[in-house]
Structure formats: structure tokens, C-alpha cells
Design a protein that fits this description.
Layout: H1 18-26, E1 36-42, E2 53-58, H2 69-73, E3 81-86, E4 95-97, E5 109-113, E6 116-119
Parallel strand pairs: 4-6
Antiparallel strand pairs: 1-2, 2-3, 5-6
Length: about 120
């Protein structure tokens, strides 16, 4: 059964909506959070000395970061996404270099190999 999450009642994800007003007055509510309704940490194996998994329950449709992703998040409030982030991968492949002169804005990037990204400016 699809129905909007009650905690998102009045949310349009725009300045001035009901959730923004609550945040503006008391710095409380969903807009005072990182967007996760619930978050958990865990270990991928018991032998790990520190947690390396972060689980987030997002009350939104989230399919990953890409151009326009926020349009899906601001859509109907009946979705639940479990996002799982893995840390400490020990993956050292590839490099990112920034030899550009830009100090503000997004520099143009070029993939120069399967694991390498370079700044063009």
C-alpha cells in the first residue's frame, strides 16, 4: 500500500514549506538532519577493528548521485531507500590530480585512464 510518510507532511522541499518553517523556527525536524530517517553502523566482518558499513534509511527515491538526482528525491513522499556506504576499502588504485588554476567552481575533468582523473584548467 503506497502512502506518503507522515513525517514528510507538508514537504515540498522548497524554502517556506512546512518542514522548512519548523526548521527555521526551532532548528528541529527532518530538515535539521542529513536526510536519513534512521542510520546504523556495522562491520562487514567481525575481525574488522572499526565499523566499515554505514546504513541509511532515506524517505526518498535515491538511485545514486548523477545529474538531476535531487529531482527524484523531491518527488512523492512514499519511497524508502536503504543506502549502504562501504568505508575502508583499502583500494589505492588510480589517482586524482588538480593542476588547474580555478579556485572557485567546478573544474573540467578528464579521465586519462581507467583509474586516473586529471584537471584540465
Amino acid at each position: 500500500m503506497r502512502r506518503p510518510w507522515r513525517v514528510l507532511d507538508g514537504a515540498t522541499f522548497a524554502r517556506g514549506d512546512a518542514l522548512w518553517q519548523r526548521w527555521n523556527e526551532s532548528r528541529a525536524g527532518m530538515y535539521a538532519s542529513n536526510g536519513a530517517a534512521l542510520a546504523l553502523i556495522g562491520r562487514s566482518t567481525p575481525q574488522r577493528p572499526e565499523p566499515d558499513l554505514f546504513f541509511m534509511a532515506l524517505l526518498a527515491r535515491f538511485e545514486g548521485y548523477r545529474p538531476g538526482f535531487s529531482k527524484l528525491i523531491g518527488g512523492p513522499g512514499e519511497f524508502l531507500t536503504w543506502a549502504i556506504l562501504k568505508a575502508h576499502t583499502e583500494n589505492r588504485a588510480g589517482t586524482v590530480t588538480n593542476g588547474g588554476r580555478l579556485v572557485n567552481g567546478t573544474p573540467p575533468l578528464l579521465s586519462t585512464g581507467p583509474n586516473t582523473i586529471s584537471c584540465l584548467s
